Amino acid sequence: MRSEKGGGPAVPERHEVVVIGAGQTGLSVGYHLRQRGVPFVILDAHERIGDVWRQRWDSLRLFTPARFDGLVGMPFPAPRHSFPTKDEMGDYLEAYAKEFDLPVRLGMRVERLHREGDFFVIEAGGRRIEARQVVVAMATYQKPRIPGFASQLDRGIVQLHSSEYRNPSQLRDGSVLVVGAGNSGAEIALDLARAGRTTWLAGRDVGHIPFRIDGLLARLILVRLVIRGVFHHILTLDTPLGRRVRPTILSKGGPLIRAKPGDLDALGVRRVARVEGVADGRPRLADGTTLEVGTVIWSTGFHPGFSWIDLPVFEENGEPKHARGVVESAPGLYFVGLHFLYALSSTMIHGAARDAGHVAEAVAARRR
Question: Torsions phi, psi of 367, nearest 5?
């Protein structure tokens, strides 16, 4: 693996293809480009490959077993039915880049992407980089979304977004309110409850997968049918069912995968109505109740976070306009890693890897 730190004077440089982001999607794109003989470089803002995973909460494990977590050309080095930790995933990505000698440049946070003539121009780490084609290999999870009324909470209440949460030691004494009952919110609530913290979980019921993903039945049948079958092959942009459910998935999220309502109840997590505002400095629920809490964790999702892309390629909601990752209105620009880019599995390791292959082929075809 070749990597170098950003810095120094703004020396113009030019590349055939620049991939922005060295997570699982960016590295997958790099692998496929190398297989097709396309020269490229990958830029990443972190100090170490895999930090996008290492910097998440301590107890996080992947939702898919190891047999689904390897990228093309390199199986995940763990028992096939185990669920890797976030640090194991980070280390795997680092090893993958080294195995295939992918040209990753670290410490290169992209500040602007625009177009001048026949080239895209990337401003990053004090450098100006020009490229004929650019692949943005980043999810729309870049900028935390927190409701405006959060600023009205009492200053004594500690507030964190789920992207900032690591473990219960960060929190103030007293009960904790987790706002947002999707997968991240439910998992964080369980983590807090296991640590003995009085925990409230606010938000609508998003449903849940009706089986244990680490159970015997899941190993034998359901994981293959649901994760590999339904999520990967049925709920896609090529099927009527996939096209019908995609808007709902994008706006409301998917069902709980590992956490179950029974798990929350068993650990004493108190599930309550949505948080709709603030009263006397305290969180106010939809039913008018206010809660006395020492900490609020906002598991309320993200803005797309693509304000640094200075190109007219976005919908009103900030999502890129694309056809399976290919931006037809800006030839040579691509996105990978987006939620439901092609299938519900697009945010899973194996789904992102498939999307990367499709985009890499489009890059290679345009170059030809």
Answer: -65, -40
- Residue 23's Cβ-count burial label (10 Å; 0-12, 13-18, 19+) is buried
Do 184 and 266 lie in a common domain? yes
Pairing of strands 127-137, 333-336: parallel
**Least confidently predicted of 20-29, 99-108, 296-305:** 296-305
Encode pLDDT of 217-261 as tens digits: 777 776 777 777 888 889 999 999 999 989 888 877 778 989 999
Residue 200: strand pairing partners: 177, 270
Residue 350: per-residue pLDDT:
86
How far apart CA 162 and CA 243 sit, in angstroms, is 29
Domain-embedded: residue 237: no
91 and 195 housed in the same domain = no
86 with 165, same domain: the answer is: no
- Interhelix angle 24-35/349-367, nearest 10 degrees: 40
Picking from 154, 151, 152, the residue whose alpha carbon sits closest to that of residue 174 is 154
* Residues 101 and 182 occupy one common structural domain: no
Question: Cα Rg for the chain, rounded, in angstroms?
Answer: 21
Rounded Cα distance between 137 and 19, Å, is: 7
Longest Cα–Cα distance in the chain:
64
- Count of beta carbons in the 10 Å neighbourhood of residue 98: 14
**295-298/176-179 β-pairing:** parallel
pLDDT by residue (tens digit) across 156-190? 999 999 999 999 999 999 999 999 999 999 999 99
Domain that holds residue 166: 146-208+255-298
**What is the CA 253 to chain-centroid distance, rounded?**
13
